[in-house]
Amino acid sequence: MTGGRGTRASLAGWLFIGPAMLVLGVFFFLPTLAALLMSMTDYDLYALGDLANLRFIAFDNYTALMRDPRFWQALGNTIYFVALGVPLSIGLSLGTALLLTSRLTRWRTFFRVSLFAPVVTTLVAVALVWRYVFHTRYGLLNYGLTSAGFEPIDWLGDPHWAMPSIVLLAVWKGFGYNMIIFIAALHSIPQELYEAARMDGASRWQQFRHVTLPSLAPTLLLVGILTMAGYFQVFSEPYMMTEGGPLQSTMSVLYFMYEEGFKWWNLGRASAVAFVLFLIIFALTLLQVRISRRYASAT
Amino acid sequence: MSLQTIIVHAALIACAVFALFPLLWMVSVSFMPTGTSSVNPPPLLPHSPTLDNYRVLFERHNVGRYLLNSLLVSSLVTLVSVTLNAMAGYAFAKLRFRGRDRLFQILIGALVIPAQVAMIPLFALVKQMGLVNSYAGIVIPGLATIFGVFLVRQYALSIPNELLEAARIDGAGEHRIFASIVAPLLRPVLVTLAILTFMTTWNDFMWPLIVISDQDLQTLPVALAGLTREYVQDNELMMAGSVVTVLPVLVLFLALQRHYIEGIMAGSVKG
Asked: pTM score > 0.90 for this model?
């Protein structure tokens, strides 16, 4: 290849990626770096009007957060949401994927499309339906409970039940997505592995335990990381269902960031919240990768 | 039929009911006259179906305008971002240029950064540019995505180099090669990306909520969230609003579900 053609190709390459890189650079990478700087300033409504009002305050936003019980509660609520929602969601995704790939199953397309439908819906809209399902007096859930002889539950008004209710909405809305990923992964497991296992006299459960699960391990890791990251970013669900209540019991980290930033206009403080959330997600991603490596080398 | 077959199907039917029932009920309640859904036991079907809720939404609550806003914003983002992502994805897969691999690694690494980290400085930036409360402000962050570049690149890797070389020897410029040879070959992945992008933009809530305060520019989800705070008791009206919001994306999904589902599989397995 001559120098001239190499340069021409190089120029073409940069021209092709140019527009996308410009958009990503200006509207994603620049703001992400700016978030770190902004989290060390007292950026507020006055600074938004005139940057001369901006002051550098180093880690004051972070130390203030560490002393703010509302932030700790938001973090605790979010961890509760993740710890309850992620296993439920992945379990349901894997269960339905196994059912859909079973050789016995008929009307596969119908079931696949039905189970996937909630994924494409708009959260704000379906949250309204679930609010009706959870309604204390006229909701279907309490109708079922009282008909069965139980006391009705104030699903969204009781601090103990509000978060589990929101988890149910999130699981319903999201499980179809991972289901599709699991179906693809299950299809890519070579049938010979199962045949060999059957010849060795492996039971159905043993086949699942020793063929299916190990083959799914890389997918489980990917799905685990993505789902966890997604659940940590919960915002619309509590915004629509409970507005963070009752008694702050469904205030998530992002909801807290939204209120700090766009209700009280403490944009510097809000950036610090976003950054802490990012660090937590990042650390947990590394932890999952580490654990799965250890698991992979142990088996 | 064996017992096992029955158990598998019973479980699937239970899951399908769980997934579909809220959606079907939403449609049913949207046709009920005001107040008739707030009774015990909750009614499943309207006794005297009516279109009043939809009429009120469009005539009194300006929902037609929000519908148009959402359509406009989602179409614009889809059109621009599919074009930019396609060009970049192809270049990362098939064109050689300095810094290509390093840059692509940075992009992949940046996939772990949640969009919300950039959101607050982005708001300050958009504000400085004078684009708060404008369509431009809503569409800006979606005009190119790392995920889209990645999806196109994975697909473009399978384009044979000989094809591109032959065109170059024939004297075709890089832009012509892209427009007349590469773009048609990328069609399946571009369709998938277009559907994914349209739906994500249509359903997006937090960014339009932050960047738009002028009612006339609100997208459907933001307008619906605003309506609920005022008309929380009017269940039937809210269900009609939900149907209007969900129906366009649901219909799009049902019409193109194969592309959509295959796209997710491709993005996950090859990645």
From this structure: yes
Average pLDDT over residues A292-296: 79
**Cβ–Cβ < 8 Å for B155, B189:** yes
Q: Do A107 and A192 contact (CB within 8 A), yes or no?
A: no
In 3D, which of A131, A241, A126 has the Cα closest to residue B37?
A: A131
Mutation for testing the B interface, residue in A53, A122, A242 having most B CBs under 10 Å: A122
d(CA A271, CA B121): 8
The pLDDT of residue A241 is above 60: yes
Q: Is the pLDDT of residue A2 over 50?
A: no
Q: Is the pLDDT of residue A295 over 90?
A: no
The CA distance from B123 to A259, in Å, is 14
Whether B199 has a pLDDT exceeding 60, the answer reads yes
Per-residue confidence (pLDDT) for residue B271, from 0 to 100: 37
What is the model's pLDDT at position B270?
A: 41
Per CATH, the homologous superfamily of domain B52-269 is: MetI-like (1.10.3720.10)
> How many residues in total does chain A contain?
299
Cα–Cα distance, B69 to A93 (Å, whole number): 34
Average pLDDT, rounded, for chain A? 91
B24 and chain A in contact, CB less than 8 A: no
Give Cα separations from A237 to A246, B29, B74, B143 (angstroms): 14, 21, 22, 26
| Residue-range domains of chain A with CATH | 1-30 (no CATH), 66-298 (1.10.3720.10)
The residue of chain B with its CA nearest to that of A141 is: B42
CA A217/CA B143 separation, integer angstroms: 35
CB A266 within 8 A of CB A44: yes
Helix or strand or coil: residue B234?
coil
Contact A177 B174 (CB under 8 A): no
